[in-house]
């Protein structure tokens, strides 16, 4: 039940169409490190990219979690089974109406579940991440980490690429 967003082929990008076809056929792109997962060949002499499904890690970001308050709400709910609305409101430092609006969008997308009940005579609202919400949040965090770690940038040349030839014909002694 995870939301899949196959990437459209990008002109001039090697392997873009193969990656889109793989995602559409299986619903799951290859794992990082698997042959063909990046859709790019490992030609020697050219800059190699770290194999990331769909190209740059930003493609794995969830647009819904790009809003700071929604990301904060999901992050607050990730380590717990459920939390009271007021606790999340105070933790995220927003008003009731701002939190309510953001939670409504997350609930509509199937990422957050809202349960209402009573404790004694007082009404209470509890928020929790759905299984899909946990998966989307995990992918979003992994993409942010990959971007921060520079995994979308060309890999540096291997150390041995700078070693000069020891062949006397090349002029080295």
Label this structure with key terms.
3-stranded antiparallel beta sheet; alpha+beta; 5 helices; 173 residues
Topology diagram in text:
Layout lengths: L15 H11 L41 H10 L5 E2 H8 L3 H13 L3 E8 L2 E8 L1 H18 L25
Antiparallel strand pairs: 1-3, 2-3
Number of helical segments with 4 or more residues = 5
- Most strands sheet: 3 strands, antiparallel
Helicity range of the residues?
Answer: 25-40%
What topology, given as strand order, has the largest sheet? 1-3-2
Shape designation: elongated
Order of helices and strands: HHEHHEEH
Cα-to-Cα separation, first versus last residue: 64 Å
The average pLDDT value, as a whole number, equals 74
Low-confidence sequence ranges: 1-52
Q: What percentage of amino acids are in beta strands?
A: 5-15%
Describe the structure.
The structure is a single chain. Helix content is 35%, strand content 10%. It has five helices and three strands, in the order H-H-E-H-H-E-E-H. It has a three-stranded antiparallel β-sheet with strand order 1-3-2. Helix 2 crosses helix 3 (85-92). It is elongated.
């Amino acid at each position: 039940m995870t939301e899949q967003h196959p990437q459209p082929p990008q002109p001039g990008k090697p392997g873009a169409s193969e990656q889109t076809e793989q995602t559409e056929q299986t619903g799951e792109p290859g794992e990082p490190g698997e042959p063909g997962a990046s859709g790019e060949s490992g030609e020697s002499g050219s800059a190699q990219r770290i194999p990331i499904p769909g190209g740059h890690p930003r493609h794995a970001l969830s647009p819904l979690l790009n809003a700071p308050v929604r990301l904060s709400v999901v992050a607050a709910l990730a380590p717990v089974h459920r939390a009271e609305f007021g606790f999340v409101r105070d933790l995220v430092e927003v008003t009731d109406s701002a939190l309510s609006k953001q939670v409504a969008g997350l609930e509509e997308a199937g990422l957050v579940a809202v349960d209402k009940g009573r404790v004694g005579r007082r009404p209470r609202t509890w928020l929790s991440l759905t299984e899909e919400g946990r998966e989307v949040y995990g992918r979003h965090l992994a993409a942010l980490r990959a971007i921060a770690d520079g995994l979308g940038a060309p890999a540096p040349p291997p150390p041995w690429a700078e070693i000069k030839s020891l062949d006397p014909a090349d002029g080295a002694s």
